[in-house]
Specification:
The chain is an alpha/beta fold and 325 residues long. It is built from 11 helices and 10 strands. A hairpin with a 2-residue loop joins strand 9 and strand 10. The N and C termini lie close together (9 Å).
């Protein structure tokens, strides 16, 4: 086995950095960027033979894979493109990557549009949604409802520590949706004014658990107690195949500086060196009993039955990952 890791193209390295730094973020957007980066790697490769080309593509996929562990859309995108890489010569292989990456990105957009139309059916004229974080799948439901002529209002949770709620608020305001922005701690108080909690997902497990931005599970438990239905908008790209065989979803732990700046940390800690521990989990797991519906481009599902869709889509896919040698 060749021990030297092939170089990845500068675009792949830069997309990987942007994903790790959350310049590119959100599960669907990450998947789209990863497919685009593989396409770029193929286009720019100067590999002299098919085996070298394949090795480069696998290395690029591994590099992208290592950026963030929780959103399954990333490995699902990499698998899709690498499994579509076929052909005898470098030119054929390159062409197949280009075609497959473009197809993947087209299908992703299409799935989001279809999902949006299905999700919009759950929203009635005059409804208020409460959102958490920024999810393009969730927003597509609101957009489709607006297209249907419904009036929708939003209560948008800020979503500490990275405040992705501000992105959601900005998007909704561009669509002229009346928005009330609240800090995360105020969510329970405002649940009485909400008709739906509407969130996205980074991964959906085979038992219907929803992995999404930290704070989603607490919101869902509060919503259940208040009688507000929880709707998860997640195209099938978010279904996690490994969970069918008992694997759990890794929750990303991010840098403590996202929570406390160095100054804040030393203010709290005083002179006591190293006394403070800061934890910064990026995601949490909402058990299926707190979720009313998972809306996909293939229809809406009660969380407990999502496994039937997973069996249909993944079958009993076995074997190694396409980026492994
Ligand atoms: C984003 C997040 C989003 C999902 C779904 O977390 O939790 O709800 O990724 O987004 P982060 P989408 O900001 O840490 O990436 O529906 O756009 O795929």
């Amino acid at each position: 086995m060749d021990q030297t890791e092939p170089d990845v193209h500068a675009t792949v390295a830069s997309v990987a950095d942007d994903i790790a730094e959350m310049e590119i973020r959100g599960a669907a957007t990450i998947a789209d960027a990863a497919a685009g980066a593989l396409d770029e790697q193929a286009a720019e490769s100067d590999a002299g033979d098919p085996e070298a080309f394949r090795a480069e593509m696998r290395a690029a996929a591994r590099h992208l894979r290592e950026t963030r562990p929780t959103a399954v859309s990333l490995p699902n995108a990499l698998r899709y493109v690498l499994r579509g890489m076929v052909g005898d010569g470098v030119a054929d292989l390159r062409q197949s990557v280009e075609t497959t990456a473009a197809e993947f990105r087209r299908e992703l957009d299409q799935a989001q549009d279809n999902l949006g139309r299905i999700g919009a059916n759950r929203l009635r004229d005059g409804d208020t949604v409460m959102t958490h974080c920024h999810s393009t799948d969730a927003l597509s439901c609101v957009e489709a409802a607006l297209d249907q002529g419904k009036e929708i209002r939003a209560i948008v949770k800020e979503t500490r520590p990275r405040k992705q709620g501000h992105i959601t608020a900005r998007q909704l305001r561009e669509w002229d949706v009346p928005v009330t922005l609240v800090v995360d701690n105020a969510a329970r108080r405002y649940l009485d004014d909400a008709d739906h909690v509407l969130v996205g997902a980074d991964s959906i497990a085979a038992d219907g658990s929803v992995v999404n931005k930290i704070g989603t599970s607490g919101l869902a438990v509060n919503a259940r107690e208040r009688g507000v239905p929880v709707m998860v908008a997640a195209q099938t790209l978010k279904l996690h195949p490994d969970t069918m065989t008992g694997h759990t979803v890794e929750i990303e732990m991010r840098d403590e500086r996202e929570v406390l700046s160095a100054d804040e940390e030393s203010e709290i800690d005083g002179d006591a060196a190293g006394g403070l521990t800061v934890e910064n989990p990026a995601f949490d797991v909402t058990p299926p009993r707190y979720v009313d519906a998972i809306v996909t481009e293939r229809g809406q599902f009660p969380p407990e039955s999502i496994v039937t869709l997973m069996r249909e889509l993944f079958g009993d896919q076995q074997g190694g990952e396409p980026w492994e040698e």
